[in-house]
Amino acid sequence: MKRCGAVAILVLTGATVMEARQLAICLDIKAIVSEKTLKVFRDGMTALAPSLGSKITFDCGPANGSTPVYVLLSDRPAEANALGAALVVNGRVTPNIVLYCEAIRQYLPSDLDLFVGRAMARVLGHELIHYLKQSIDHDSHGTFAAYLHPARLMAAPSRAD
CA distances (Å), 66 to each of 89, 99, 161, in order? Predict the structure, then answer.
């Protein structure tokens, strides 16, 4: 087991157009998350990337013009029952995101690595949309809905995302 963690508040504002870009996901692991869960999470993010209009790597080294996105994995209690949050500074959604791993585990009906990893990927996908759109708005359905049902969080990524 690895530890993973972070803190952030979701208060978003802005435009509606997502900008396609290459994102380098930089993980700060402070929560207890198994290697298998992390692999499912990484694979899930790679699968969700096209629906975000982005390419995703987990290489945080300087290079290749990627935009770094700092993701903290935390076992701390979530803010206002959130599963994840993007930090907002001066009205701009920053590429600083927290996933509340324990809240995600507790929200799901199963704590199998497969389901927790998929859920973590979908929650991060949701927060990345806030960052890419610079928006607090949500869709009525899909990965960018305000409420994500546990079954949707545990489902395999698809082009419908």
Answer: 21, 21, 23
